[in-house]
Amino acid sequence: MTTRLIDESLFENGESENRKFDTEGFEGDPPRLAGARCSGCGTVVFPRQDSCPRCPNGAMSGHVLPVSGHVWSWTLQAFPPKPPYRTPAEGYRPYHVGYVDLGEVLVEARLAVPRAEIRIGLPVRLTTVPAYRDEDGTEVVTFAFRPERDGER
Q1: What's the rounded Cα separation, in Å, for the pair 62 and 45?
Q2: Pairing between strand 25-26 and 32-38?
């Protein structure tokens, strides 16, 4: 099965050609999220952008984000989002979304965490999850965070 990232610009080394995916995301090291840091005030943003949201003086440069963080806030996405969201072939199933505190920045993301485990402060780690299938059968994956296992930090 062919698999690709939903948007390679969200990742450092995001080229998905010849990368292998499994139910836990990427085999081996996953791609890391690619943000940007302001040279003037140090503000970190995700996704990357060309200008600083806090000051007019700095240039934005690429900044790789940590793979581990903590759930800062979460909710259940109980209904299908508006387009450009694509409903999976097997139909819509509710999922968790929230903000993950990566230390320098809060990232909005899917949370691949069972309801019984999800809580504010939960240690989580970057992974990928299926988003939809293209017309040609390619599985398109997006970033998410899953519970961090013992010893992963």
Answers
A1: 10
A2: unpaired
- Summarised one tens digit per residue, pLDDT across range 75-86 is 999 999 998 888
Residue type, 46: F
Strand 3-5, strand 139-147: pairing: parallel
What's the Cα-to-Cα distance from 4 to each of 7, 38, 65, rounded to whole Å? 9, 30, 21
Greater confidence (25 vs 69) lies with 69
| pLDDT (tens digit per residue) in 1-60 | 788 888 888 998 755 444 555 444 455 566 799 999 999 999 999 999 999 999 988 899
Q: The whole model's pTM is what?
A: 0.86
- Tell me which H or E stretch contains 140: strand 139-147
Contact between residue 69 and residue 102 where contact means Cβ atoms under 8 Å apart: yes
Q: How far apart are CA 99 and CA 109, in angstroms?
A: 6
User: What are the E-state strand segments in 18-138?
Assistant: 21-22, 25-26, 32-38, 44-45, 60-64, 68-77, 95-101, 106-111, 123-133
Q: Which residue has the tokens 């999220």?
A: 33
